[in-house]
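Sample entry (137 residues):
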Amino acid sequence: MFKRIMVPVDLTHADRLEKALGCAADMAKQYGAEVVYVGVASASPSAIAHNPQEYAQKLKDFADAQATARGITVQAHALTSHDPATDLDATLLKAIADTGSDLVVMASHVPNVTDYIWASNGGTIAAHAKISVMLVR
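Predicted structure, serialized as tokens:
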């Protein structure tokens, strides 16, 4: 049913992604699918990486660790954005097409009052993606 599952990953908050990571891995095993971990970072130095190349390597290391721990086939797809806070949704929507994914499994937070004013990243991806999107809380 699914061949490539895209999982957006924020390496700064990787410890909060366990449910989504586990769900994606379970689905990948069930369907024999590959998981593509997509990370978006700024070109500017951050707490995670000093430059886009270092970020890409850290995302690859994360993906490789997931492959080993969960017994799945993975890829890492690192993207650079001038301002991830403002164009994250558009960057992730483009990544769906760029990676050839047919499912997105994405961590999301429990909705709160600000979600009535500003849509969450997961809500925006689910509303605009042309493929299935699973939001995991």
